[in-house]
């Protein structure tokens, strides 16, 4: 169980998050939704220790999460990645295996096999020697999905992974999320897309600097909750 208890994050005296509490169970695909500036990325970064929490606790299996960061795979927003960095697709994914070997040590046979399987899962094995910057947006996103798979983590965070991707990539990602659920992984996905894919999630967290609602998509995306989070009526999907 991944738990956040009374988490508050402040920037320059202003609250980015206020008293957020939630629990994520293994084997569930959880979507984190809310308006721009709601604190969605801040929540994940606070859980990762990338931003400092003003107060609150973040635990995994009753132990501080900051002491178990090796169990987390994190895929940031595409805008935070330098796509011009001279590295191949295969080496991007191999970076996930650095904990399994000493610095400058050649990858083991097991690591090479794990990386190959991850790239095959996202349909990028044939492009493994291509510079990452030469891929399409959807292919780049799949490369970082493969990196998260190769890390073999228990907790996986994705920050808006569907932005600017093609339908093939979207389908591959949801298929892999289903596989990870069967493996009892803990999955948290930030999304701004409230189209029909919202019903692919087992649970939604609706956030606007504080937790507005938590539950199934039908329970969360009510007119009242939408008004509280977005400031206007629900008119994008049928909840």
From TrEMBL:
Residues 2-233 form the ABC transporter domain. GO terms for molecular function: ATP binding; ATP hydrolysis activity. InterPro entries: AAA+_ATPase, ABC_transporter-like_ATP-bd, ABC_transporter-like_CS, Metal_Ion_Import_ABC, P-loop_NTPase. The keyword rRNA-binding does not apply. The keyword DNA repair does not apply. PROSITE patterns: ABC_TRANSPORTER_1, ABC_TRANSPORTER_2. Pfam families: ABC_tran. Keywords: ATP-binding, Nucleotide-binding, Transport. Transmembrane segments: none annotated. PANTHER family: IRON TRANSPORT SYSTEM ATP-BINDING PROTEIN HI_0361-RELATED, METAL TRANSPORT SYSTEM ATP-BINDING PROTEIN TM_0124-RELATED. Belongs to the ABC transporter superfamily. This is Metal ABC transporter ATP-binding protein. It comes from Lusitaniella coriacea LEGE 07157.
